[in-house]
Amino acid sequence: MHTKQFVAYIMGGPEFIAQLKVLDDIGTDYVEIGIPFSDPVADGPIIMEAGQAAIRAGMTAQKIFDQLKTVNGQLNTRYLLMTYYHTIETYGEAAFMAEAEAAGVEGLIIPDMPFEYIEQLKARYPERQLKFISLIAMTAEHERRQRIAQSAEGFIYTITMNQITGQNGNFHPELKQNISDIKQHSDVPVMAGFGIRTPEHVKDIIEVADGVIIGSEIVRRFNEEGIEATKAYLTTIREALDKDSTTAQ
Length: 249
What we know:
The alpha subunit is responsible for the aldol cleavage of indoleglycerol phosphate to indole and glyceraldehyde 3-phosphate. This protein is α/β, with parallel strands linked by helices and 249 residues long.
């Protein structure tokens, strides 16, 4: 595990296993694999289009599980599933979690499920191995951020801007202070996501965050530039994180 962590997002399309292996090669700590969904309310246009393309190609939760089983135990990177609750409900909660665990999935991110419902879901499955990753919006009240942080598992996904994913713009003005505050109330790493694309973004936010989450930019590059060019880009992100870790020590 690296001092500063790299969390990458990819869509669960036909090429996702090849992309997962590239991310493993460059030293990504976690990979979030999106299960395509017809009405992805939290996704920006790049991820939304990738999801629609995956659906057109016939990708389903079951196909993603089956393909993950072929690499289970072979990768250093840990992988998670990002899915809307409707997909879990349709599959069947208990069956979905059992299948995810059988496929080597580390945890779940459910962006349309509020904290209170996530807590109920945790309570229904006390024997589970899966971790439920908490999202904390910078616009949330201080007490709510603290409550979510205290019950977090795996890592915390802080939403750095009050916007959908991948949009341009500066980080939230109070972002660094809020991340520092969240870290005081949690025992798990605090990652910054939404809108991070460049090594410069990484160097800026990593002053306080334990790692970064990059989604739309990775999806776009895999789609437009292919495996090798995207691997070169991913390496610059990994190097920015490692350089900062070395400097900070």
